[in-house]
Design goal:
Layout (H helix, E strand, L loop, with lengths): L19 H12 L5 H17 L1 H13 L5 H10 L5 H4 L14 H23 L7 E2 L2 E2 L11 E4 L6 E4 L16
Antiparallel strand pairs: 1-2, 3-4
Helix pairs in contact: 1-2
Length: 182
C-alpha cells in the first residue's frame, strides 16, 4: 500500500533543536568566506562569548520543542512570510512556469485556461481525498502539512503581522479569474 499525505504524519520525528556547538560551527562555516582573517577571528570570539552566555536561551528552545509539534515553524512563518512587507506575487506566492503556448484564437486561450483550472481542481480532489503519495527523503517520510495549505488559504493584511485564514474545504468552492487586470 502506498502511504498518502496524512498516513504517517503523526509518526514523523520532531524537528531536533541543534546544540549550541553545532549552531556556532555552522554559523562560522557560513561567514568564513565573507570575512578576512581579522574579522573572522573577531567573529569567533563573539560567537564563543555568545555560546557561554546563551545556555538559558537553549533551554527555552528545548522546552518549546517539547510542547510544539515543530518548535521553528510558527517563527519561520511569521518572520519569512507574515511580517515581511515585500511584494507577494514575486517573492512568496507559489508559482508555475508553463511552457510557451501558441493559440490560434481567443477560444484556444479559453480552452487552455479551462484545462488548467480543471487540472488544479483534480489535484484539489486528490488532496481532499488523501490520495497524494507521501514525499520521502530516501525511505524516510516527510511532513506533508504544507500541501493542505496550498489551495483555499488567504493571507489577510494586518498592521504588524498578517494572518492566514484557511477556508473549510467543504464549504468554499470558488475559482477567481482575472482578465485584463479586472
Amino acid at each position: 500500500m502506498t502511504s498518502t499525505a496524512s498516513t504517517d504524519q503523526n509518526t514523523l520525528p520532531r524537528l531536533p533543536v541543534p546544540t549550541l556547538a553545532e549552531t556556532a560551527r555552522k554559523y562560522l562555516k557560513t561567514v568564513a568566506p565573507l570575512l578576512n582573517n581579522d574579522e573572522f577571528n573577531e567573529t569567533k570570539k563573539i560567537v564563543e562569548q555568545f555560546r557561554q552566555e546563551s545556555e538559558p536561551l537553549q533551554e527555552l528552545l528545548l522546552k518549546r520543542a517539547q510542547t510544539e509539534e515543530n518548535w521553528l515553524s510558527q517563527w519561520w512563518l511569521n518572520k519569512t512570510y507574515l511580517e515581511w512587507r515585500l511584494n507577494l506575487p514575486i517573492y512568496y506566492n507559489p508559482a508555475i512556469v508553463l511552457p510557451r503556448q501558441s493559440y490560434r484564437d481567443f477560444d484556444g486561450q479559453i480552452q487552455f485556461a479551462a484545462n488548467f483550472v480543471h487540472g488544479v481542481l483534480r489535484y484539489r480532489s486528490l488532496l481532499d481525498g488523501n490520495q497524494i503519495p507521501i514525499d520521502r527523503f530516501g525511505t524516510d517520510p516527510l511532513c506533508m502539512d504544507q500541501y493542505n495549505k496550498v489551495l483555499g488559504i488567504c493571507r489577510i493584511p494586518a498592521k504588524s503581522i498578517d494572518r492566514l485564514h484557511l477556508y473549510n474545504k467543504n464549504g468554499h468552492r470558488h475559482v477567481a479569474i482575472f482578465y485584463r487586470n479586472n
